[in-house]
Amino acid sequence: MIVGPKDFGKFKEAWFRGVYQKHFPELYFYARSFTNDEELIRDTIQDAFVTILEKDKLESVSSIRNYLFSCVRNTLFNKFKSENIRERVKAEMILDSEYDQDTLDCYRERLFTLTKEAISTLPASCQAIFRMAKVEGLTYRQIAEVLSLSVKTVETQMGIAFRKIREYVLEAVIER
User: Fold this and answer.
1) What is the pLDDT of residues 3-16, one digit of tens each?
2) I need a surface site. Which of 13, 52, 123, 149 has the fewest CB within 10 A?
């Protein structure tokens, strides 16, 4: 018998066990859609259930299932964010300790050159929109007005430009 959140204090253990057994498989596959890291998935689901156990007033939660899905998603995203921050800090520390300023300047110059090359490979209209936004500092709305385009078209073209520039630079760096 699964007990609702209003009876949470009295039947906590039975309620928790029932909810866990009922929702674990679907939470597992939901988390799996974000990552294939088994340990991270299990930790995240466990964290979601711990959050429920620690929450005193579950009466305000209308759907435990939706609440669990939100917990899993938010916990995963927070873990991804903190991992990205850790990796960036680690990379910066390595750069600071291993490279002198001349080496860093050389890398920056190479990146700048690759970026300019990548921009020059963009289709003419995409290149014009990118330059107006990044060199001239115009807003997407201003660019749309100047070129008689919709703001959505400008956004799409900027997305294409960023993707192609990123791909060009990554490809050049990997080949090096």
Assistant:
1) 455 555 556 677 77
2) 13
